[in-house]
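User: I'm putting together notes for a lab meeting next week and I want to include a structural view of one of the chains we've been expressing. I don't have a solved structure, so I'd like a prediction I can at least talk through. The sequence is below, exactly as it appears in our construct file.
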Amino acid sequence: MEFKGHAHKFGDDINTDYIISGKYKFKTLDMNELAKHVMEDLDQDFYSKITAGDFLVAGRNFGCGSSREQAPLAIKYAGLSAVLAKSFARIFYRNAINTGLPVVECDTDQIEPGDELTVDLAAGVIHNMTRGITIAVKPLPPVMLQILNDGGLAAHFRKYGEFKLDQEENDGL
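Assistant: Thanks for the context. Below is the predicted structure for the 173-residue chain, given as structure tokens.
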């Protein structure tokens, strides 16, 4: 999986209420409507600044807070292709993979707002085209790559009717 876009950078400890404010979580089930409010509490104009394929970049402990799936879904429906962060809250990380949102652990210190990035999950690298550098990423296990390629865990089950792994790619897990 390879993605291209621009970086939108935030700091450490971005909780799920910053990702999608609690005041919207129960007002609608329409993910396209919810997406319009992603990161609104930290940047009122965030949704208008992003282009499909861009990246949300952060520091440590991204997605801490509640376990609701609206946070990764709002990011995905906003058109962001992945979240790049130094670390993720465990529940957010699993929810992101399950909903088909790529999450990439890496050193984000070498990424600045607006940088043009290419993220290659299979190769395990980020190319920062603006700065001319390559950043290694913590590789995702093949099973997670397969789930992401299928569009998330529910899409994977719809596709195969069961939890199906490509045995060649997943030997040794």
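A couple of points you could mention at the meeting. The chain has one domain: 2-140. The beta strands are 2-9, 55-57, 82-85, 103-105, 116-120, 125-128, 133-136.

User: Perfect, that's what I needed.
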